[in-house]
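## retry 2 of 3
previous attempt timed out at serialization; input unchanged, resubmitting
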Amino acid sequence: MQKRLYNLDGLRFLAALIVVICHLEIFKTYFNLKASSFRFFTNSAQLAVTFFFVLSGFLITYLLLIEKKKSQSQHINLLSFYKKRALRIWPLYYLLVVLAFFVLNKSSFLASNFQPIEETINTQRLLGYTFFLPNYTQLQYGGQGYLGQVWSLGVEEFFYLFFPLAIYFIPLKNIRRFLVLLIILFFILSIGIHFVNNHEYLSGKWMLPVYLDRYRIYSFAAGGFAASLLVLPLNKPISVLALLSKRLCSIFLMIVLAFLIGTGITFSIFTQQAYSLLFAVFIYSITVTEIRFSFLNHSLVVYLGKISYGLYMLHPIATVFVLKVVPGDPSSAFYLYVLLPIAIVGCTILLAALSYELFEKYFLKLARKRVVEDPK
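## retry succeeded, writing output
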């Protein structure tokens, strides 16, 4: 039976908030403002994206396994799944692509060092984004202003495309082995990719490792493994899982992760892999214990979690707008680290809320309607 999953919307908002705040420091350099060198700002945006990957792997696997477990034939409705994901992701993505190529790049007001005014459209780049290939496009033809953040959507769509097929064909009893194999395989592959990317000769000869380095399949698989433990309990109790089932352990893990991310601590070439496992363990612990952190489950924070996709996608527009219209002393710490972040977060929330209420909700309702109408 599907259980209520607490805290996850709140965590989704916090991850999006970290991305917005950290990216502000990058945007400051485009406007000749001093950026912070504190490790949180330089490292934590990537960690937040890794959390999104782990959470996506957890939620998608959780829902697919519940559906597969309920079905007498152990099948899942792939068409329903693909429709729902497309209607959630594509509308805002393609709206932003249109804005980035045909509106924002023509605006002198929104132009900056990272987004100069373009007289002509780069056709190859436009086709790449149109066919949902942001990573290939950015590496081959250069990035498009206001679309730098969509690289992670290319990774997620890749996962959404192939992973449900694996769940469809693999028997329930073998799902966990498959996920462990994915974690091990892509962990080893990621280490090899890191070696190639840092090799003086190979890094300049072969672009594929640079491309693959973004595809953290081990993150999705780690989240999926956590979900499998929740939906398909082990026959024999394991002491580690028993420990994770204690609420005190959930609180401890949250404190540890808050410290690690807040201080921007990394683990050399194993950073994303280590955090993927920590995030998966944490998500499993807070869901199996059903602990409720008051802040994460506050109605406002839950709502901000629901609009986190808009926060992630639209924050570059809000950031440039605020940097253009909010004056201040470039040497003032208050302006750089208090006023600008508050204004940009507020503007991003406003844009995301408008997008969710006036645009995205229509497609979400359509997705729910179509899912209901799909034959089982």
